[in-house]
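Hi F.,

I've been meaning to write this up properly since the lab meeting, where we talked about keeping a consistent format for the predictions we share between groups. The idea is simple: the sequence comes first, exactly as it goes in, then the structure tokens exactly as they come out, then a line or two of notes. No screenshots and no reformatting. I'm using this chain as the first example so we have something concrete to point to.
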Amino acid sequence: TCTPITGAQAPVIGVHVDSEDESEVCYIGRLVSVEDDGFYMQELSPDAEWMREVSFFSWDEVSTISMEDSYAQSLLAVAGPAPALLPGDASGLGRAPSP
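Output, unedited:
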């Protein structure tokens, strides 16, 4: 499982999700918060650009979580630090400020 300590130890994580066509998709990003039913992550695109919104992943859709993956670390090196999130909706999570 993913815990708050995971985010403290790894600046980016890989979240592996099984897709409908039985292939595995990996999302790279920064862990934002952990809930009972899943977690929020600010994603990093394959073009090394930080997404402007957080994404929610439920525990039942995640097959594996990877840390210190060389691909994820390379994306982070190009993208730089994630922008701070602005206050959001009732969840308390929001969007990153536009550049």
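Notes:
The first strand starts at residue 13 and ends at 18.
The chain is about 15% helix and 40% strand.

If this format works for you, I'll send the rest the same way.

G.
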